Hints:
- 40% of the residues lie in helices and 16% in strands.
- The chain is α+β, with helices and mostly antiparallel strands and 354 residues long.
- It folds into two domains: 1-62 and 313-353, Orthogonal Bundle (Hypothetical Oxidoreductase Yiak, Chain: A, domain 1); 72-183 and 226-299, Ribosomal Protein S8, Chain: A, domain 1 (2-Layer Sandwich).
- The strands form three sheets. It has a seven-stranded mixed beta sheet, with helices on both faces. It has a three-stranded antiparallel beta sheet with strand order 9-8-10. The protein has a two-stranded antiparallel sheet with strand order 1-12.
Amino acid sequence: MTNKLVFTYKELFNFSENLLINSGIKKCDAEIVVKVLIQADLEGIASHGLTRLPIYLERIEKGLINANPKITLEFLFPALGIMDADNSLGHVAAYTAMEKIIANAKEYGISAIGVKNSNHFSAASYYANMAMNEGLVGIVIANGPPAIPPWGGREAYFGTNPLAISIPGGDEYDPISIDMATSIVARGKIIKAAQEGNLIGSDWALDEVGKPTTDAKAALKGCILPMGAHKGAALAMAIEMMAGLLTGAGYGKGVIWQYSDSPQPSNVGHLLIAFNPEGFLDKATIKSRMDDMIKEMKGMPKAIGIEEIRMPGERERELVKVNLENGITLSKELVEKFEQLSAKLSVPMPKSII
């Protein structure tokens, strides 16, 4: 088997959806999960794509993710609510929450929902983009299992705690889509490196005794460094408090890593927000000002070696077009896992187009 294999979007979608369905997930929920995962692969964010599906299936089988959750949503204020995800797949909880937020934001101008008792939900930008596609500004944060130490420490406490912000574009330029971990690198990239036997950057992580390491497995036993030194650590702390502590979800060491041997559910927390920018300016003015600002940024003098100033989300949109046309590339290691799951769950394995 070659190191990389390529599959069509449709074949991978159907295969992945049927793996979930045959594991006890409702078709409507399976469709949400696969849409989110494959979108990450299409955008070139393989660390948050289908590579995560095997661990979801394993946790479903062990009863550590609830295949048939009874998700509840309560609004103590008209546009501010709290969701108990009942240990559902995180994608289902976040997608459901953002659908309600969009409806509320269109009525009230702004809405937010905190989510507790959830799980990993792949790329946060997917849900922020849901709002952006409806003409709203979307903001999504989440906590996760310990990865980043408090500034000055060497033991992991905060998650890599992503922040996604999506802002509608103008008539000439596309929307802005920001998605970043508050760690120097997303943990998913280190997990992927460990799975594939690759080294990581020397400034990414510390091992268990607090020494810098390029060994991905040692990094996963130690801690990942925050972006921007103390500033990144502070931002990770703020997200931990807002998405975890304030929502009633786990926080710090109370969030369980999905790859660990713990018999406890993850209890991840999310906070999703959307607001209508037309509460500030009319739509035509917003579009014109967005075009003007992006044009100004793109026209500024470039640093040495830089051919083009690109906006957040621009690269991902280009990759989506390429990967839809040429197929989605999966690693040999992931294909081997899928072959095992294919046999185990009686779902025919798709054929590589290359």
